[in-house]
Amino acid sequence: MKKAAYVLSVALFLFSLHVSEWAEAKMIVTKIDRLNVREGPGLSYPVKKQLSKGQRYTVVQETNDWLQLKLNERETGWVAGQYVSSVKEQVKAAVDRLRVRSAPNSQSKILGYLKLGQTATVIETKEEWTKIQTGSLAGWVSSHYLTESASAENTQFGTVAADTLNVRAEPSQQAAVVAKMTFGQQVTIIGETGDWYQIQANGNISGWVYRAYIMTTSFYIQVLDDDTNIRTKPSLSASVQMRAKKGQQYRVIAKEGNWYKIELSGQQSGYIAEWVVSIVHNNNRSNGSIKNKTIVIDPGHGGKDSGTIGSNGLMEKTLTLKTARLLKNELQSAGANVVLTRENDTYVSLPDRVKIAEQCHADAFISIHYDSSPNGLASGMTVYYYDAQSDYPLGLSLDPVLSETETVPYRGVRFGDFHVIRETTIPSVLLELGYVSNPTELSTIASDSYQQQVTKEIVDGLKRYFSN
Q1: Per annotation, catalytic residue among 62, 432, 441, 457
Q2: Domain range for residue 456?
Q3: Catalytic site residue 256?
Q4: pLDDT at residue 365 greater than cutoff 80
């Protein structure tokens, strides 16, 4: 009896050692494609799904070389341990003397402190607290005072570039929505497959998002004048953090309203107003001018496709061509090479419009449209982008100049799944420059004064985009 109890205690001790290895790591990365996830810890259990190589998951528990993974907020599953490897996420203390506590609350015992910039390994997270280990010190710290360590391997970060983004349980449009994120929120990309990113955010959000909605490519802004204020919050009433000199450039982290959140030295951030900077696009710094840039202008609709028709009989196809011709003249006067996808009232298919842009090796593609709504009351202009990496910076360049338009309300930069901007491989936007279905707005957008104003603003936006 005693011998059996001794054997059992040894077995339990050895098991606890084996578990502790994974308990410390808390996260694994899959090593193979089509890794079976089973309903229980063994080959006899049914396969519930498969995972792709490179995906990361938190370990819930382990038994007999099988690991139970937290697949999303609602689901777990088991995988064979031989097909995964442990991942240890690294973080740094963003403040000096960061308190390390015995439990995830501010009332628990202080076990020690982290110095500013000190690196630690993440063991687990719980709400707004992170359990870390560095040397012999292990305990809980407030997640607000941690930053990602640059030494963390294979870690990529992104910013949500959609008004509302669904986080799904699986990389599929049909999968359950487990959380929602909003424009400007930052995510950690821990895996990818096809058109989907596997992300984590805020310590409590994990799942899959469509990759077109995540901006990972950095872009920069350049300060226009000396002594430009960089503030602690996106508001003119916020305190001034520092002042920038003319020509200084900063990496954009996110955009909040009319403010850019920018990266500062020492892993700090601040806010700068969009009207005091110009956008610098990394792929277009060599020239610093709109001169000799090839820009394709796409007048929407045409021929048998009239587009929407106003109460006075004016067709959208007529208005888009008028705008496109004016825009072409303005851009050519500024030294750009301009191509129209249609020069007159002819029908051009959507794939052919894309083909024209690709054959020209264009630096930018602008599709011109006018909007409509069933009730005839909607109004305003909108800038649509599809790809957060290449299209979104172009849309942001147009944002500040179009927002100054007083005659037609400005609705902002939004995601849009339109063929002509979805299928191009060059920076592209689709502009809805007002509502033909609104009789009052129609008289405004059809006027020569509005046409001249809006084309000038588009040219100014493109100059910002290609600015050095």
Answers
A1: 432
A2: 294-465
A3: no
A4: yes
